Amino acid sequence: MILKINVHWAFSQVGVKLGELTSVRTETLKHLGTTIKVEDMQPGDLVFFDTYKKDGHVGIYLGDGNFIGAQSSTGVAIANMNDGYWKENFNHRVKRIDYVKK
């Protein structure tokens, strides 16, 4: 719940509407935007991890292998997806939310 609020909030700060908060979930986020190759990731892209299920966790890519996410062990925090747990669980799903800034 915490991360969907943070993803929803973060995108709303730059004028991107992901839908009503009650309809935004990791499952719905993976169907939005454009699929991006891992080597083409840019800050702001959504990155997905197979944690307790396929695409069980989503984060916002920050660049240099880092993403921001909300984990039960750390709360909202920056983590590196090139090491340990996150590297093992990154499923290479990357989505770019397309929008036209007004």
UniProtKB/TrEMBL annotation:
What SUPFAM superfamilies does the entry give? Cysteine proteinases
Domain NlpC/P60 intervals:
1-97
Keyword annotations from UniProtKB, A to Z = Hydrolase, Protease, Thiol protease
PROSITE patterns given in the database record: NLPC_P60
What terms describe the molecular function in GO for this protein?
A: cysteine-type peptidase activity
Q: Which domain of life is it from?
A: Bacteria
GO biological process terms, alphabetically, are: proteolysis
Quote the InterPro entries the UniProt record gives. NLP_P60_dom (IPR000064), Papain-like_cys_pep_sf (IPR038765), Peptidase_C40 (IPR051202)
Q: Which family does it belong to?
A: Belongs to the peptidase C40 family.
Q: What is this protein called?
A: NlpC/P60 family protein
